[in-house]
Design brief:
This protein is α/β, with parallel strands linked by helices. A hairpin with a 2-residue loop joins strand 5 and strand 6. Helix 1 runs parallel beside helix 2 and helix 2 crosses helix 3. The longest helix is centred in the middle third of the chain and has 22 residues. It starts with 8 loop residues before the first strand and ends with a strand.
Length: about 260
Amino acid sequence: VVKSTINTETIDLEISIADFHLAKKTLEGENIQTKKEQFLHVLVDLLSKAKASFDIRTIVFPISNDFFHTDNYQNQTTNGTPQDVLTGYDNEYEEGFDLLVTAISILKAYSDNVEVILVQGNHDRTKSFYLAHALDVYFTNNINITFQREHSTTKVVLLGNTFIGYHHGNCKIEDLPLVFATGNNSEAFGCSKYREVHTGDKHHYMAKEVKGVRIQQMPSLSGTDRWHLDNNYVNNIRAGIATVYHPIKGRIAEFESRI
């Protein structure tokens, strides 16, 4: 584990690289290998920034959130929408698996505990489930790497006295706090001092507060494709986010890495 050289607070860290869309054919002309290099560069940059200031106890790593661009061999999303792609469904899966094996191994070097959370997206609902299962099997002998990977559109973690609910965000996000407050995790929601909901989907950063629940929409590293250009969804800042949680004070810092 990479150790910091100064006396620092012990914290938990969430690393969010959402909506990666690995095989998406972008107007920037990037290829698969370039995208993988961007992902790892942002990951290490975020970890280095956090480790310079804090001792990391646990890293929470949400995966999917449209990590893959398509869900089947017809190059379609889960709901059947055709996509422009750089490669076929099989190569995207293998390249993506390789990338996340490397990423999780890097995370383990920075923390004794890594929790990987499957947040199924609208582009890759089934393929991301297979990915999370394969990663769980790959790391099965490492007891300090755990997975929440059941088929579900919602997931939950508790970091100290902070509740975090996860959903891809392809919904009315203002409804999500009530979904978590009244669902199976209502007791954890009610007992927490601080409550947050993290989403992706829209490829741009946004944060708002609804009745004391902080909703954070994470940015994306993904470039612009033909559909986004035609519909004027352009010029989003391409970035990953690392959020720092103190066990008592809650969220105390946020780091960003841009490409």
